[in-house]
Each structure stands twice: as structure tokens, then as C-alpha cells.
Amino acid sequence: MKKFFALLLALTMVLSLAACGGKEETPAEKPAEGTEAPADALPGEGMEIALVTSKIGTQVFLLQMVEALNEAAEKYGFKATIVECADTAAFEENIRALVAEECDLIIGGGWEAGDALNKMAAEFPDAANYALIDSEVEAEAVKCISYYEQQGAYLIGMTAALVTDGESHTYGAVHVNEGAGSWKWRYGYMEGVKAIDPDAKFIFNYTASYSDPAKAKELAIQQNEQGAMFVNSACAAGDSGTFEAALEKGFYTSGQDVDLTDPSNPYIVTSQIKDTYQSVTMLIDEFFSDSYDNSNSTWGVAEGTIGAVHVTHESVNPIHERLSEEDMALLKQAAEDIASGKLDLINMPTEEEYNAG
Amino acid sequence: MKKNDNGLSLVLLRGWAALRQPLIAIVFGLLIGAIIIVACGESPLMVYAEMFQKSFIKPYYLFSTLVRSTPVIICAMAVGISWRAGYINLGVEGQMITGAFISTVVALFMPGPSFLVAIVAWVLGMAAGAAYALIPAILTWKFNVSMVITTLMMNYVASYITSYFVTYPLKDTAGDGLSIQTPEIAEALRLPRLSSTTTFNAGFIIAIAVVVLILFISRKTIFGYESKMGGFNPTFAQYGGTKQVKVMMITMALAGAIACVAGNAEVFGLKYRYTDGMLSTTSYAWTGLQSALIAGLDPIGMTVVAIFLSGLQIGGSAIQRSMGIPLEIANIIQCCITLFVSVKITIRFVKKSKAAAKEGGKQA
User: Fold this and answer.
1) CA-to-CA distance for A170 and A199, rounded, in angstroms?
2) Contacts of A138 in chain B (CB under 8 A)
3) Using only C-alpha atoms, what is the Rg of chain B?
4) Chain A contact set for B313 (CB, 8 A)
């Protein structure tokens, strides 16, 4: 036993010594890099902006925010901190710790951060600046940025009906959450489809996870079996499963958040844009301008953060062959009407009201 | 035992015996973690210094660690009490969810003076947790169903049923209604905070009280003795006249009730509402199970290990924030520790079975 302990101690020492040796070079390097930058002192020098999200993984929605934050950090010179939270309790722990560590702006990426931000902002309204992307909470100190997703979903719905071209009246969609979490998308989609095809029927299924391609694929195939020629995929990282099913079974589909059209999969007709990259960039630009305040904003097609590929956002991939020039003109007109407010998709009923009406 | 052994050295010796194996496992876990940190291109010493400073040394983070450890400690006790009696209860998570959910519902909807509401909420919740734990016990007794499977599977049943209630009838519609959670419970029902800057609350005191209670039950009561004997050797216990069914029912009910306390400490002490997945995504029950296994079911050891494992999670988040090291490093260390402890258990098992084989050979 003694020998074993001696060995263990020796091993620990050797390892820590080796570690010490390695470390001495790195801290010397880092300040050297830093001293080059503040030649013409950037406005964010010495500040810290943190982005608090759930596990990022391959979710483009979150990856875009990270990219925007890192780019802004280079532009303004602040320290960008990305905090991934593995569970619901971690959000409050991390945000609380960020407040204690005197972070200047705490951005919650997604609704999961909402409750924790709300609590912190109510408790320490002046300790930091708080912003929340893609959700709305009550605390006044939190600047909430939400979207009119229904506007983009409307364009997707129209596209779905135009692509189907009356060959089927059943339309599918795979979402993540039931209830309010997906209502804006479902409402917009249904209204968009019905604008072209008034006899439409809808099938909605839910993956209950932001990263479950296997389940999304299974659900999409089932919807196709029930007659859906178009399955709108709105299940984050699960979208790839729907796309795979579309390629195998030959039905049409659309993606979410960024341009997911792909020359190797002709069945992805379009993609609903929710530009979190631009949102974070706009937010941080505003933060470093003089006009920053805590008032909430909602951005939609008019601001360019919401839209659909080919309609409001250009793509490197060609427009699908089933969409004629007339169809495109119809879509572009709808987008213009939404942006100008002629087609009102800002005021919408709740799911309960819709079902009752 | 020699008579000239004085009390202090005896305590130290026993403490060392209880903590030796976890400590060795922790050292090895940290060593493997160090290798991975080197592979990430960082210095393990710097990372560990930051990690331990921001989990155990600086007061703010120490309190965060204690807050995180509160449900873990109580879950470890629930696991410990059933495992030491020989019942492999993997359903602490489900029992915790059921109990805490019932408590929350009572706290939200029962009218009357808050003192009374608080008592009814906690008692009903604990009763619900106990009842939920009794279902697998009854299945085992009547139909000889494997408790490992029933308890494990019933975690999902509890989780999905509460998920339904929180998503639909009990959902908080304030704000944009995206969060899947109930409204907040009244302020008078919340456990008092014991610190102005952190969330450290009376839940931790409750956790310590539960540990003391378990120590008392297992060391000083007939039930504690009977259940321990049942765990060591069921045949002997039966021969000695224990009513095994009764012991099993009481053990499981107690585990379920304690599990509910763990969930309530989180709901009433920290979150003030029931949020979908708040007790399952955080893996409190499984971290509690890990600490129970690492500490060999010793209540004091379980408490220490539970605080240590929670500290790893708090420290893991801290190094992510300040040094950009992925959160998974802390998980790797935690899993390595558990792995090394199970290696020890396996070696002992292999030794035992080899010895048994030898003896068998001699006899034949």
C-alpha cells in the first residue's frame, strides 16, 4: 500500500511539474497578442459579453449566434464568453455567476434562458445588461428580441401549396414542441397553405427534442404515407432526418433557420429564414451605440430577420422546377404585403382562440 | 479491538477507511481529466486551480456548490436506504418527480393560511412519493417482478405524465408562454434564503437533517438493523424472524418520501415553480446514485461525495465561462471517478469468486 501511494504521489508531482513547465509560455504569449490590438482603443476594450444557451451541438440557430458574437468581439474588442448549459438548473447558476463576475451584457440565446434571466434581472436590475433572443419575459431590465415567425411560415405554407399544385390536399409538418412553442409556425404555415389551397388538411407531429433526426425521419415518412406531398420540417437539428426521408420517399420538404437548400437533395424546396446572426449583430451594434435601452423589439420580414429562401433571401442554389415564374411572383407579392402590413400577420389568434373560432 | 485505542484515532481510522476508496478514485479521475485537459492544449494545474477555486474555495461558489448538492445529497440518502436493505431502487428520480409535482400542485391551488398549506403540500407530496415507490415493491412482492426494471421504467412514466400536466392544464401563460412551467408558488411558501448574494437556502439544512435522520434510523432503530440484515443476508434475516415484506414496504416508502424532499428542496428553495424536466435533465437522482456507490452507502461519505460531485459541475461551468474549456471535461472526471470505484468493486468480486472456486475445488 505504501509503495503504491509513493508511486501515486510521484506521478501527481511529475504531471503537475510538466504542466507548470508547459504553462509558463502561454500566459506570456497571450498579453503580447492583446497589446497589439488596443492601438486605437476599441469601445469594448475590457468589457465582457456572454451568450448563454443550451447545448449548441449542430443547431444552426445557436451556431449563428456564436459566430455573430465572435465577429462582434473582434470588431469592438470585448471578451466574448460562450456558456452552454447542460440542464435547466445550470441556466440560473451560470447567469448568477456571470452577474457576480461583473459581465457587462448577458445575452440569453433561446427561450430556455428566459426564466433564469427574468429572475436575475428582477433581483439585480442594475448589475448587468440583459438581453434575450427569441423569447419574451416580464422583467423590465431584460431587452427581449422576438420574431414574427408566422410571417416566414406563411411564405413556406404558400410555397408548399404551390409545389404540391393540387396533387394532394394533405400537408405535413414536423415540429419540436406541442402547444405555444410551435403555434406561430403552425398558424403561419396553415394560413399560407390555405391562401392557395382552401381544402387543405394538416398533420402535425412533434419530436420533443431539438436534435433527433431519427424521430423526425420516422414522423416525416408516416406523414408521407398518409398522403402528404409536402412536409415542412421545423425541428432544429432534426431537419436532416426529414430531408433524408424526403430523398428516399420522394416528397417535398423545407428547412428552418438558415438556407438549407442543397444541390444533392432536390426535394428541399425552400427554407424558412430566422436570422439569429443578424439579430445578435444588430443587438451588439445597438449596445455600443448611444441609443441602447431595455425596450423590447420584435423583428419580422420588414426587418429582414425573417423570411424564406428564394422569396426574401437569395440562394446559390436554383429555384425548384415545380415553382413557375408566376408562382414566384405570387410569393414575392405576399412577402411585400407582409412587410408593408397589407397582409396582417402580426396580430394573430392564440391556439385556443383559433380552435374555438 | 485493542482497549488502549483512544476515541479520536478510532474516529480518524474509521473515517479513513470510509474515505480511502473514494479518495483514490478521485485522484485517478483527476489524473485522467488532466490528460484530457493537456490534449485540449491547456495546463491541467491552471484549469484545476480555477475549477476548485470556483467551486469550493471562494465563498460565492462554495454556496452555489452547496445549493446544487442539496437535492443530490437527499437523493443519495433515498438511494442508500433502499440499497443497503438489498432493494435496487433505480426509481428515485420518478419518486422525486411525483412527490415534488404533487407538492407544487397543492402549494399552487390550496387555499388557506400559508403555514397550513406548506405542511399539507409537503406531507401530501411525501405521501405521493412513498406511494409511487410502493408500486414496484408490491409488484415484487405479489408477482416477483424485477425491481430494477420496474423502478427504472417508472421514472419515464412519472416524467412524461408530469410533462403533460405542465405543458397543458397547469402551464404558466405569463410572458410569451414558451417556457413549459407552472406559475410561481406564493412567497410565503418558499424556503427562506440564508444568504443575500447567493441562492443558498434552508433546503441545505433540510438535507443535513435528512442525513442525521438516516444515520439515526440505520444505527439506533430496530427497523434500521432489520433492513441492514436483510441487505447482508436475506436468509439469515428471515431465520432471525424479520418480516421481510414489511421491511421492504417501509424501506421503499421511506425512500420515496425522502426522494420527494429532494425535489421539494429544489422547487420550494430554488425554482419556486415546477419546470418541465427540472428534476430529470439535471440528473440529481443519478448523481445521488453515483455518490452512494462511490461512498459505499455510508451516509457521511455520501454527503461528502455528493458535495464534491456537485462542486465538479459548478467548477466545470466556471472553467467554461472563464477559460472556454468544454463542460464535458467535468463530466469526464466525474465518470472516471465512478469508473475507478466500480473497478474496485469488480476486483473484489473477482477475488471472492476465485476464492470460492478454490474452496469448491478442494471440497470436490
Assistant:
1) 9
2) 174-175
3) 22
4) 90
Burial level of A65, CB count in 10 A (0-12/13-18/19+)? buried
- Cell numbers at A166, concatenated: 393540387
pLDDT, tens digit only, all 364 positions of chain B: 444 556 777 777 777 776 777 788 888 888 888 898 888 888 999 999 999 999 999 999 999 999 999 999 999 999 999 999 999 999 999 999 999 999 999 999 999 999 999 999 999 999 999 999 999 999 999 999 999 999 999 999 999 999 999 988 898 877 667 788 899 999 999 999 998 888 999 999 999 999 999 999 999 999 998 888 888 888 888 888 888 899 999 999 999 999 999 999 999 999 999 999 999 999 999 999 989 988 888 899 899 999 999 998 899 889 888 888 887 777 887 788 778 776 766 667 677 777 777 766 554 4
**CATH class in words for B19-347:** mainly alpha
Distance in angstroms between the alpha carbons of the first and the last residue of chain B? 37
- The answer to whether residue A20 is domain-embedded is no
**All three cell numbers of A154:** 406563411
Judgement on whether residues A72 and A177 belong to the same structural domain of the protein: no
| Contact in structure between A84 and A141 (CB atoms under 8 Å) | no
Domain boundaries, position A165? 149-274+324-356
| CB–CB contact A8 B27 (8 Å) | yes
Residues facing A232 on adjacent strands: A173, A254
> Looking up cell 428471515, which residue turns up?
B238
Instruction: Please state, in angstroms and rounded to a whole number, the distance separating the CA atoms of residues B313 and B317.
Output: 6
Domain count, chain A: 2
The Cα of A162 is separated from the nearest Cα of chain B by a number of Å equal to: 31
CA distance B14 to B343: 22
Contact at 8 Å (CB) between B356 and B49?
no
Q: Which domain CATH number covers A108?
A: 3.40.50.2300
Nearest to B175 among A20, A98, A137 (CB): A137
Find the radius of gyration of the CA atoms of chain A.
24
CA distances to B88, B254, B292 from B79, in Å: 8, 10, 7
Q: Give SS3 for A245.
A: helix
- Crossing angle between the packed helical segments A88-100 and A114-123, to the nearest 10 degrees: 30
User: Closest chain A residue to B271 measured between Cα atoms?
Assistant: A89
Q: Report CB contact under 8 Å: A115, B282.
A: no
Q: Is A22 exposed, middle or buried (0-12, 13-18, 19+ CB in 10 A)?
A: middle
Query: Contact at 8 Å (CB) between A220 and A245?
Result: yes
Report which residue type is found at B104: T
**Element (DSSP H or E) covering residue A232:** strand A230-234
Q: Compute the CA torsion angle B260, B262, B268, B270 (nearest 10 deg).
A: -150
